[in-house]
Amino acid sequence: MAMNVASSSGGGGRRGRRKPVVAEINVTPMVDVMLVLLIIFMVSAPMLTVGVPLDLPQTSAKSLENNDQKPIQMSVDIKGKVFINDTEIALNELIPKLKAITGARGGLEERIYLRADKKADYGTVAKVMGQLSGAGFKKLALVTEADQGS
């Protein structure tokens, strides 16, 4: 009986013919994930802006220049509630809180943006402006929307 023995250098097995290891990164799945994340962030970013919902009056006045700091925004809504940067505050606590905020930033020279709903009580808006003026705040800007035309 003859026995067939395969030699190690023969062509019978797969051991000698391995493919070389590929050391490259497959970027296609990474690009897919990044595009999905980009779309998610683009859709969710406008929903993250919160604030006091106001219907601002429209004017054709030009806009003010912006500085690097986030401005102090005061709001008066349609019900007459007063807000400092999205935090509701009583009218009698307005000036002490505002002086505490501006003391750390720019003092009485800090610009204050006043946003008021166009259907808000004019008396409440006038009281807020009067208190700010009486306390020594000189830079008060009224915020409106750009006029869309007729």
TrEMBL record:
<comment type="similarity">
    <text>Belongs to the ExbD/TolR family.</text>
</comment>
<protein>
    <submittedName>
        <fullName>Biopolymer transport protein TolR</fullName>
    </submittedName>
</protein>
<keyword id="KW-0653">Protein transport</keyword>
<dbReference type="Pfam" id="PF02472">
    <property type="entry name" value="ExbD"/>
</dbReference>
<keyword id="KW-0812">Transmembrane</keyword>
<dbReference type="InterPro" id="IPR003400">
    <property type="entry name" value="ExbD"/>
</dbReference>
<keyword id="KW-0132">Cell division</keyword>
<keyword id="KW-0131">Cell cycle</keyword>
<dbReference type="InterPro" id="IPR014168">
    <property type="entry name" value="Tol-Pal_TolR"/>
</dbReference>
<keyword id="KW-1003">Cell membrane</keyword>
<keyword id="KW-0472">Membrane</keyword>
<keyword id="KW-0813">Transport</keyword>
<keyword id="KW-1133">Transmembrane helix</keyword>
<keyword id="KW-0997">Cell inner membrane</keyword>
